[in-house]
Amino acid sequence: MTTNLFSIIIVLGVLVFFHELGHFLVARWFGVGVEKFSLGFGPRLFGRKVGMTEYIVSAIPLGGYVKMVGEDPDAEITDEERHLSFTHKLVWQRMLIVAAGPVFNLVLAVLIYTGLFGVYGVNGLSPVVGQIKPNTPAASAGIGYGDRVVEVNGSPVVLWNDIADAIEESDGNPLSITVERSGETRLMEITPEPSTARNIFGEEVPSWAIGIGPIQDPVIGGVQSGSPADKAGLKVMDRILAVEGTDLDVWGDVVTAITGSEGKEVELLLLRDGAELTLTIQPEQLDGKDGVWRIGIAPYYEVVNKRLGFFGCITGGVGKTWFLGKLMVVGLVKMAKGNIDADLGGPIIIAKMAGDQARVGISSLISFIAFISINLAILNFLPIPVLDGGHLVFFAIEWVTGKPVNDKFRELAHQAGMFLLLSLMVYVFYSDIMKLFFK
Predict the structure, then answer these.
(1) Closest to 97 measured CA to CA, from 15, 22, 35, 37
(2) Which of 20, 76, 81, 189 is catalytic?
(3) Is 203 a catalytic residue?
(4) Of 245, 242, 235, 300, which Cα lies nearest the Cα of 273?
(5) CATH 2.30.42.10: which residues of the chain?
(6) What is the pTM of this model?
(7) What fold is seen in the domain 220-299?
């Protein structure tokens, strides 16, 4: 509990600071006076005034704010203060000041991912072929089990993802693939064929394939605490030889056998430290989903590390931020259309997740901050009054029409936006409590 509380304070503190820093810096850049820079809401805990700005930490750590001179259009501004007034700046300047908050959250994510790539590189599966589907381009070309792919179209291959990316980007054009077999290299020309794959939302999407996969031997790489496998005594590096007397070749056979058990006890033949043993396990449903059974094990993979250069780290940081941001936007659109369930997590769940990541390690917690920062940026860009996106809509209307939005309409819109946000907050708190205590 203490770890969760400490972690969420760190996460929210970093996110809010960067968000408000964006508003603050761009406001000062355009000469807008800033009266307060607050981390948190509510009663003032402590702070210090520097120049005209009071920097404070407030009691409720669920956000923050930057109070600018003339931010309220109805505020009385003296002639001496007019040059410092937010309301009296050009529309495009006000838009940039408002947009700077969520933009800085995206910048934070880029900086974090760039730094993590620089320190840790990229981990992935070894580019060794472990599966060859029959009657596919790879099988016809003669790729064999255990071949190590070293180049694709002249580009070095370090991770399996390097192969997968090259195939996906080929657009069906022939690929020159160099493999290493028994100390010798062989060059093969393989043309990918149209295929389908499932995206993160479970939808089938068009893809390209040559019919190979990484090594996925039926060897256990992880056992979930408290799972049926843990209770039955399965251990990491156990090799599963058979399920219910049926011999296994690859990890996918294990998944098929457990899923096909329909909840009945299954007998596993294992190889451990050179000796065979038999265990009986009772599968359980996956998160209560009908027809999806599991025993709580994960496969073992040979993981390799790829180091990135300076520009590679920057490209990777920008690319990962763009990918996750796009993924969230697509997810929000699908939720709005009702294509996927709206499974939202609020402060309680975020605190638990932050604590979990902190227990894994500092790099996991930092990566989590980047992920939540992207989410915060996207949500703030939504065109909801009281959010940055709502303000941007009002300023865009003013830019097009040449006059500010009607005061009464703006007030009603803000009230509606506040009601929506409060309703959402109540829902996510209720959802968090149900997930944690009544699941």
Answers:
(1) 22
(2) 20
(3) no
(4) 235
(5) 124-214, 220-299
(6) 0.78
(7) Pdz3 Domain (2.30.42)
